[in-house]
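Input chain follows. Return structure tokens only.
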Amino acid sequence: MKDDRVYLDHILECIRRIEEDVRPGRDVFMASHTLQDAVLRNLHTLAESTQRLSVGLQLANPEVEWRRIAAFRNVVVHDYLGVDLDRIWHITQSEVPALKPTIQAILRNLPDLPDVDEEANEEDD
């Protein structure tokens, strides 16, 4: 469970960075290879992080299209010459913003894990 929390936090950080990078608007994004690269990298990292989430968490949250995100990661990594920037822009404007509150809710609803020191103390008793 602790790993899920780490990866969910990482997904939210990628979303924050994507939001920041696209804030100047579509024209700036389309004209800037640096912004394009940054957004693609964060989309790749976001997708990679979703693949590292536990199967249990994924099954418990079927509202997220986990397989679709994984498939997108494969396109970015393996078919990078075929990346359509208009499609990337659409993803940043509709799919990423829609994913954010879902990931935040999943994170909020994760059970708190006992502190490692607490577990060690219980074993000593």
